Amino acid sequence: MEPRLLHEVTDSVATVVIHHPGKRNAMTAAMWRALPPLLDTLAADPAVRALVLTGEGDTFCAGADISTLRKSPGEAQGLAVLAEEALAAFPKPTLAAIRGHCVGGGAQLAAACDLRFAEQGALFGVTPAKLGIVYPASSTRRLVSLVGPGTAKYLLFSAELIDAERALRTGFLDELLPEGELAKRVAEFTRVLAARSRLTQAAAKEFANGRTDRDSHWTEQARGSDDTAEGVAAFLERREPRFTWTT
Q1: pLDDT tens-digit profile of 8-18?
Q2: Running DSSP on this structure, what letter comes out for residue 28?
Q3: What SS3 state is found at 55?
Q4: What are 94's strand-pairing partners?
Q5: Are 76 and 105 in contact (CB under 8 A)?
Q6: CB distance 195 to 213 below 8 Å
Q7: For the whole prediction, is pTM greater than 0.85?
């Protein structure tokens, strides 16, 4: 099978799989180009409540396909940034499910997700210093916001890989699972996400991403929604809520 992005929607969760196993799921130019329109399609699907990004087999993504960088490094980097920004802007919760290598462009994509769960043995690195590439300002800011300036500089200056335990300690990861437990935990947690209020999640995502100028917008959305009344009623009646707000 040619390098591509695969996707499916199951139980309100969209799963996007980076499929290029011959090169540890390295992203080709075509794959970078394909990600934003795929995300637009999934964002517009009312059946999708959350999105999981993962890699085929036992690795997440080893970065950009180096042959792409050789042909046109500037274009390849621009495509990667567009894909990263599209992922960061996805209006529903996103989670990177990581096994094996999460390096270079792979770490860029993982950082653009809202949450990152990994399996024991995963390795992480931000490697432009090995290639003489200037890491984009937006990507650098996103990395700093996750791990702090000290760890971000360590990763960017050295291009060294760090293990999953260190990634968890520094804040790059949200959960670290024993080997063989990642898929089960991701399925369990995304079911939780899909059951929660989309209104709360959408507003929280914008606020957490710095869009504090939208406070009045979300106040109006809450006033016009039945989610609060439903949430309170469900709590008092000891049942699961049935939230109905949609964008």
Answers
A1: 999 999 999 99
A2: P
A3: strand
A4: 51
A5: no
A6: no
A7: yes
